[in-house]
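[User] Once you have settled down, look closely at the record that follows, and write a paragraph about the fold.
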Amino acid sequence: MKELALKYGCNPNQKPSRIYMSEGELPIEVLNGRPGYINFLDALNSWQLVSELKAATGLPSAASFKHVSPAGAAVGLPLSDTLKKIYFVDDIDIDPSPIACAYARARGADRMSSYGDFIALSDTCDSTTALLIKREVSDGVIAPDYTPEALDILREKRKGTYNVIKMDPAYRPAPIEHKQVFGITFEQGRNEIRLDDPALFENIPTANKTFTDEARRDLIIALITLKYTQSNSVCYVKDGQAIGIGAGQQSRIHCTRLAGNKADIWWLRQHPKVMNLPFVEKIRRADRDNTIDVYISEDHDDVLADGTWQQFFTEKPEVLTMEEKKAWIAQNTKVALGSDAFFPFGDNIERAHKSGVEYIAQAGGSVRDDHVIATCDKYGIAMAFTGVRLFHH
């Protein structure tokens, strides 16, 4: 198949719409549903991300994409009991399936952003992963293959309309890529840089020059995630998964703050008060996620006010105070941070430190590198200048 007609483009008024190959066959097969223009943008970008994560780490990988940027990305490490509970997968035995663990991590880290996502899996989708996907609000999934049981489960989702795409893992695109904007064609070489190259971590200008094996792994995950995130972008990673992604911001400090706030929310969801919220029986998953998000925020009264809390809880929870939140966030450690270009000022490091960042990989090359280095040294942070910029548009 050389081309596939689509219902419409980014918006319903943008017709006609299609995907096609100038040479050769399309490397995809639609096994179910009718994916649209944005679905394919998410699918093909996320497929590249998980393929590179798998190649770099040797671990099954997954990504949750929304509007051509990842909401989450992770490798298939086992989940602690705490993570199983806050990701709401403690009712399914997912440990035998590394790809299910990867998906649970990618989908669970930022559940608000992942709502209605497109999923990418580096490995064959098994029945355990399909069961996790089936109960989440999602637009579709792309993977190299599906077990017969998994395909049956996914074909039942969304009254049989769920988008299921099979990707040819042997496909390699041409080295030159093209893009049209306003009738003008842009051409560039594909970004084929390898981000698992040890040389990227050789230039360490900070006093602390120690990167643990886990820190290097997490920094590689951060950099690969950034390679497929709309710029400017910053990514916080811990224990093999992105816990905060700031995408598409004009200011890098805003990226750092946005991603840091998401990382803080991920950590706060593990606070005992949050984990023990007394939800009413059969609350919708989306309502539960939104309620947790509001409860953690400064707008907690929106779900705790008399006459309102009864919609969500069997009894009125105590407020999670600002002091309690600050004390809990201070306990987060060993977080890795990647940036798709240099940090211009030390304010980014100040913000990163507040969210437990101890390891950083960034391009370097700012006229204020000295200030950035000094701020890292102030907190004992180890930072590598990779010399690599990862803008993606």
